[in-house]
Write a structure and sequence with these properties.
140 residues; mainly beta; Pnp Oxidase, Chain A; eight-stranded antiparallel sheet; 9% helix; Phage major tail protein, TP901-1 family
């Protein structure tokens, strides 16, 4: 895989619950993490005393965080409203040369900041709120 520009990692939100996604504007830095808890089923009968994990068990989750500047009134307003309403709309996370993750996320953190001589900034945190679909990137 070739080196990718960070700007190509996109966070998109379904703006009107009609399946049309728009990139959340103004994000300068974005981070995606995938997590899977394990279920330990080790017993005295475990071969060689090695730990055993229950296949397919445990909770899987995804977390997204981003920070940036205000650039687009529509997506800024949508993110703010999602937080206050506690909604879990579909998001798309486009990861270059990896694929697209799509599914419901909840805005779990929204922070605003700014300095006297600088621009207003925000930080956004999302947590998966249901089953996620993954579509691998097309191989060229």
């Amino acid at each position: 895989m070739a080196v990718q520009a960070g700007k190509d990692l996109l966070v998109k939100v379904d703006m009107t619950s009609d399946g049309q996604f728009e990139t959340i504007a103004g994000l300068r830095a974005t981070r995606v993490s995938f997590n899977a808890e394990t279920v330990d089923v080790t017993s005295l009968d475990s071969e060689g005393g090695w730990r055993e994990l229950l296949v397919g068990a445990g909770v899987r989750s995804a977390a997204i965080s981003g920070s940036g500047v205000f650039r687009d009134e529509g997506t800024d307003e949508r993110a703010r409203q999602l937080f206050f309403d506690g909604e879990t709309p579909d998001f798309q996370i486009v990861i270059p040369d990896f694929g697209v993750v799509e599914g419901p996320f909840q805005v779990t953190g929204l922070e605003y900041g700014g300095s006297l001589n600088g621009e207003a900034t925000y930080e956004l945190s999302l947590m998966s709120a249901g089953s996620l679909d993954f579509t691998p990137a097309a191989v060229a």
